[in-house]
Amino acid sequence: GIFFYYILYLFIYFINTGTVLVQYIYIKFIMDLRLVDEPGSNDADESRLVALLSDFNVTRWLSRVPYPYTHYDASFYLRELVPRPDARHFALREVAPSNKLAGVISLENITANSSGSASLGFWLGKPYWHRGYMTSAMRELLRIAFDEIHLKVIHSSYMVDNVASRRVHEKLGF
Description:
174 residues; alpha+beta
C-alpha cells in the first residue's frame, strides 16, 4: 500500500512527583493512527469504548473485559482504572480531524522500587486490525517504558489461540 508519513506527537501523560510531564515524540506511522494521551480525554471515548469492545471478536481475547461491554463498564474504566497511580493507559487514536479512539495500551502494576516492573496489556478495535498499528505503537511505548520511565522488566502475555497478539509479542522480542 501507499505509505503516508506523518510527524505525529505522542502525548504521554504521567504523574512524577506531582507534576505532569508532556513529551513530544516524532513517530512514523503507516496510514492514519497515532498513540496519544490517555483514554477519557475525549468526550466521545466512552461511547467509542462501548462500540469497539461490544465486538466479541475483540473482547474474546481480553481476560478482564466483560462481554457484552456496556456504558457502565466504560464509565468505570475511565473513572476508576485510568487514574490509578500505578498504571498508565495510552489511547491509540485516528489522526485529526476525527481523533476517534481505536484502541488502548496499558502499563499496570507499575512498581517504582528497584525492580521497576509493569504488566503490559493492549487491544485494538477490529476495523484497525492487520495493519501494523499495534506493533508500531507498542515499539514506541516500550522505548519510553525502558528509557524514560526506567522500567527494568515488562510482563506481557496472550491467549494461545490469539495469533495476532502472538505476532505482536514476537516482533517486539517477548
